[in-house]
Amino acid sequence: MRRPTFDLAVLRTFVTGVEFNSFAKAADCLGRSTSAVSAQLKKLEEQMGTPVLARSGRGLVLTPVGETLLSHARRLLELNDGIFLSLHESQTTGTVRFGVQEDFGEHFLSDILRRFVQAYPMVNLEVRIARNAELLSMVESTGLDLALTWDTERNSPLATRLGETPMHWIGARNTRLPTMMDDSPLPLILFDAPCVLRSAATQALDAANIPWRIALTSPSVAGIWAAVAAGLGLTLRTRIGLPGHLDIVSGLPPVPHLGYMIHSCTEAPTPATRELAALIKASLQEPAFNFAVSK
Signal peptide span per the entry (predicted)? Predict the structure, then answer.
């Protein structure tokens, strides 16, 4: 049996006329003549095999079949319009400038970029991997559309806290903490100040009356991992991007969790920028990410 196919233009006329409570107004809104609208309604009722509208005084009301048709017609039009909008936006050109703190950049940036390019293949991405202070300055000067950073005392006006992760003392495999602390300050490998993890490390050690010294500073996370692996000292970081050859070190003072934020430079981002922000939020809420940062 050959099934009839609804004409979406006819359904749109039907829905618009019901919402305006006037098919004359619907004709004006859709740029059609009243006779064309009448012909569409006649075609719809012939296709349905039963009236969808009935007269009530000087007006028209929906029949029971018309009420059911209206509900289905709205869903069909919403689906049609959503598909069109999605395909249209996927052909949007332009540039999205995204800044990310280095820990996140190493951990999940490639997956985010892959998903974004699938949704917006014509949009160029400019990615900046940097530390918090630089990223926040670029957001404030509109040099970046979005930035993913640690949660610090300095935040932008359009910032959203996405979550938090524990900080850990990290050292080379088989690090023996008592030997390292014997009659000498604890050697630390950290970023230059200002750094939220550096401050957390030194404050925790000071509160526990544990002497420390800065054995090495590095401008990059990769440099910190290399120095820790060489046995030059300990660092304080999260599990995000933690190399498999390094270990969590126990026996040192506890430190608080560290939050992470997403920042926007405008209250009215482009559709592509909104999509990137949504992908970032979704990735940070995935079970695999939460397991990796909290185990």
Answer: none
Question: Six-digit token pair at 233?
Answer: 């000292």
Tell me how far apart the alpha carbons of residues 64 and 168 are, in angstroms, rounded to a whole number: 65
CA 275 to chain centre: 7
**Average pLDDT for 206-210:** 92
Beta-sheet strand order (sheet of 146-150) = 123-130, 94-101, 146-150, 257-264, 159-166
Residues 53-58 have a mean pLDDT of 78
Is residue 182, in this structure, part of any structural domain at all?
yes
Q: Do 240 and 174 share a domain, yes or no?
A: yes
Q: What is the pLDDT of residue 84?
A: 75
Strand bridging mode 146-150 / 94-101: parallel
Q: Average pLDDT, whole number, for the chain? A: 85
The C-alpha atoms of residue 184 and residue 39 are separated, in whole angstroms, by 93
Task: List beta partners, residue 258.
Answer: 165
Report the domain count for the chain: 3
Residues 16, 70: contact at Cβ < 8 Å?
no
Q: Say which amino acid occupies 236.
A: L
Burial letters 231-262, b for 16+ CB under 10 A, else e: ebbbbbbbbbbbeeebbebeebeebeebebbb
Tokens of 244: 């498999």
Question: Which of 54, 73, 90 delimits the end of a domain?
Answer: 90
**pLDDT exceeds cutoff 60 at 289:** no
**157 located within any domain:** yes
Question: Do 115 and 182 share a domain, yes or no?
Answer: no
Q: Nearest to residue 202, comparing CAs of 241, 252, 154, 162?
A: 252
